[in-house]
Amino acid sequence: MTGVGTIAVQTFRSMLGNVKMLLWVLLAPLVVITLMYLVFDVKNETDIRIGVPDTMDPTFTEGLPEDVEVLIYELTPVLDTLLDTHELDAFASMEDKGLNVTYKNEDPPKTAAAEQAVETGVRAVEDERLKGIMAALPEEAEIPKIEIETSFLYGDSASTYFEKMFPILTGLVLFFFVLVFTSITLFRERVSGTLERVLATSIRRSEVILGYLTGLGLFILLETVLLVLYSIYLLDVTIAGSMVWVFVIYILLSFSGAAAGMLIALLSKSEVRMMVLILLVTVPQIFLSGLIPFDYIGDWFNNIGYGFPLRYAGDALTEVMIKGNSWSYIWNELLALALFIIGFTVLSILGLKKHRRV
């Protein structure tokens, strides 16, 4: 058996022998995700952007709430492209006696606010028409009503805020627990002297790191499968795209967390320093991963997020799980995650040099 295989088997057996640690790693993320589901399963009000053609009744746009930004287009564009590239929350057009509205529905709270705004605009049009016909029609005349036909680019009317946040929340939880689990595991190997004994043999440093990564990888795969299946079948989260790509993204994110965890364990001289490094890696990603809308974050600070793996994983998961897209939309993010894994692994191999006594 090669050095990588030997260390992988040894790591796997040590994990099986620590039942409490294994249960903590597997079940704790599920508890955290459940709590987040209960907290974020709400709808909030926010500012919205609505597009209309230049033929739209001006009474409708004037009747919209003041905080709604209205964009007027000379020609009715392709809605899929328009809603995405122009960052609109809805596009409304008037046809005969009806109003056609397409909502982007990427963010359910914004969709709810857009629906209320459209209803306000419709009431303004109805009131204006009513004033114009009241004098000419008898009292028993029927007042025309505007019928609203609604469609959604992403999701449906039952979409919740948790579904919008789910890809980023689960990525954050998974990354954090894998990072902590790997850091603690390798740090204990250092403290117990196991790592030094391994380094005293002829096994290369690269084999040591790859061996630990392979051994821990089996539990990473198990955790990923458990988390995704739990979210889909128990929390009833809808995945618009392919589940295969969801697993690929989560696995790459998990291995980047494991590789980063090994690097932290090798750089830490004490448990306190290890926890500080874990916080330095994790906390910024809470603010820069998309949990907080990027519109509320300064551009210079927002760009820092591209230095962390969770930013790419969150973008890729949103494309697959919410928008239903696949490889052509996420290959950049997958490449970035792979580079993070390679980078952290290479740095860990270099970091082992100071621990080798022979």
How would you describe this structure in keywords?
5 strands; 13 helices; elongated; five-stranded mixed β-sheet; D-Maltodextrin-Binding Protein, domain 2; 358 residues; alpha/beta
What can you see in these coordinates?
The chain has 358 residues and is an alpha/beta fold. The protein has two domains: 235 residues, no CATH class; 105 residues, 3-Layer(aba) Sandwich (D-Maltodextrin-Binding Protein, domain 2). Helices cover 65% and strands 8% of the residues. It is built from 13 helices and five strands. It has a five-stranded mixed sheet with strand order 2-1-3-4-5. Strand 3 and strand 4 form a beta hairpin. Helix 6 packs antiparallel against helix 10. The longest helix has 32 residues. The protein starts with a helix and ends in a 7-residue tail after the last helix.
Extract low-pLDDT stretches: none
Which strand-content bin applies to the residues? 5-15%
Order of helices and strands: HHEHEHEEHEHHHHHHHH
Largest sheet: 5 strands, mixed
The quaternary state of the protein chains shown equals single chain
Radius of gyration computed on alpha carbons: 27 Å
- Shape category: elongated
**Structural class estimated from helices and strands:** alpha/beta
Mean pLDDT: 78
Q: Total number of β-strand segments?
A: 5
- Kindly, what is the distance between the CA atoms of the first and last residues, rounded to a whole number of angstroms? 23 Å
Please, how many helices? 13
Number of self-contained structural domains: 2
Helicity, as a percent range: 55-70%
Neighbour order of strands in the largest sheet: 2-1-3-4-5
